[in-house]
Amino acid sequence: MAQVVRGVIARAKGAPVEVVPVVVPDPGPGEAVVRVQACGVCHTDLHYREGGINDEFPFLLGHEAAGVVESVGAGVADLSPGDFVILNWRAVCGSCRACKRGRPWYCFATHNAEQKMTLEDGTELSPALGIGAFAEKTLVAAGQCTKVDPAASPAAAGLLGCGVMAGLGAAINTGQVGRGDSVAVIGCGGVGNAAVVGSRLAGAGTIIAVDVDDRKLATAQRLGATHTVNSRAVDAVETIRSLTGGHGADVVIDAVGRPETYRQAFYARDLAGTVVLVGVPTPEMRLELPLLDVFGRGGALKSSWYGDCLPERDFPMLIDLYLQGRLDLDAFVSETVPLDGVEEAFARMQRGEVLRSVVVF
Ligand SMILES: NC(=O)c1ccc[n+]([C@@H]2O[C@H](COP(=O)([O-])OP(=O)(O)OC[C@H]3O[C@@H](n4cnc5c(N)ncnc54)[C@H](O)[C@@H]3O)[C@@H](O)[C@H]2O)c1
Ligand SMILES: [Zn+2]
Ligand SMILES: [Zn+2]
Fold first, then answer.
1. Atom of ligand 1 nearest to the CA of 191
2. What is the distance in A from the centroid of ligand 1 to the CA of 238?
3. Residue (of 182, 239, 176) closest to 210 by Cα position
């Protein structure tokens, strides 16, 4: 029997989001229904509402979530009702060309639920990142549910489902930050500050946080940045170089994703250093660089999709570190809001007042 729950949808480009009844089908083969306990408000939800991702309105928003499995469909072996899970948008297929080459964190054919959640009139909803968790319950592929220790707070755990994992992974997985490395992080929102935390966890010696907003820099300092740079006040590249013996950082992470921040990242890194782009640019953005500098500075220019994470490997490990007090996920939860508070949470995000607002049920 399908059930009707409350969910937050974006009906049309730019229109305010609405809380409406959503029809959630019973899980089919390989699917699960999850009772959502908490779901963070991510910049990507706002991108969906603004038509920046695609035109498949109406969207069921929300994708940074944790909850409890309510029911599973046929053929689901390793998930049971009652399991505490973080939802992921990388349910690896095991058979695409990336998976076959032993690089499942690039999986090009990740699983989502086959059935559709709908409005009461039957209109099919497009769930954000194949999840749609600003809803009391949601239907996903079983592989999108990653079991973690239920001692974790759902509001904190859910953040590993997107932005915080992207930032941690940009440092640890993509940037391969190691003991004693110098790191600079440009843009210290939820994602960039997670990169600061990831760099510290990986043993970086110098961690330079760069932002245009002093409130974000204060948080970065609290989370482990050794230096902060307001790039409105001073030249970011010169400052990062001077803080690293005149050379530049071993790894520079661009968590904004604009041509000007990428250029800063490119020139603020040491010879043979690494640039990691984790901020998401928009289609009209262009970058021009002297090709000789690309060659002459060497190293690696990498992009980080979802922090190159493997949910099954990374989520339980990071939750264990959280429960041991070594990874402060709670610091990313700026406020909790009810389901009808998403629109105001978008506004606070745009004004830079929060790292993450989290909808709790
Ligand atoms: N790669 C992925 O898989 C992935 C996953 C989630 C989010 N993201 C992307 O990461 C980016 C950051 O997300 P967020 O949730 O942290 O956003 P956010 O809005 O919370 O943070 C952005 C930060 O960048 C700062 N900033 C803006 N312009 C700047 C500039 N020119 N120089 C320095 N700092 C600047 C802002 O002050 C803010 O602190 C977004 O583009 C988001 O879409 C990527
Ligand atoms: Zn695959
Ligand atoms: Zn997200």
1. 16
2. 22
3. 239
- Cα(97)–Cα(100) distance, integer angstroms: 5
Lining residues, ligand 1, CB within 6 Å: 42-44, 162-163, 166, 186-192, 210-213, 216, 231, 255-258, 260-261, 278-280, 304-306, 349, 352
State the ligand closest to the CA atom of 91: 2
Q: Which amino acid is at 164?
A: V
Report d(CA 79, CA 74) in Å as an integer: 11
Q: What is the distance in A from the centroid of ligand 1 to the CA of 65?
A: 19
Contact 278, 270 (CB under 8 A): no
One-letter identity of residue 185? V
Distance 75 CA to ligand 1 centre (A): 39
pLDDT in tens, 155-197: 999 999 999 999 999 999 999 999 999 999 999 999 999 999 9
Residue 238: count of CB within 10 angstroms of its CB: 13
Distance 149 CA to ligand 2 centre (A): 26
Tokens of 153: 């707070």
Catalogue all structural domains in the chain, each as residue range(s) with its CATH number.
3-161+328-360 (3.90.180.10), 173-304 (3.40.50.720)
At 52 the pLDDT is 85
The tens digit of pLDDT for each residue in 98-147 reads 999 999 999 999 999 999 999 999 999 999 999 999 999 999 999 999 99
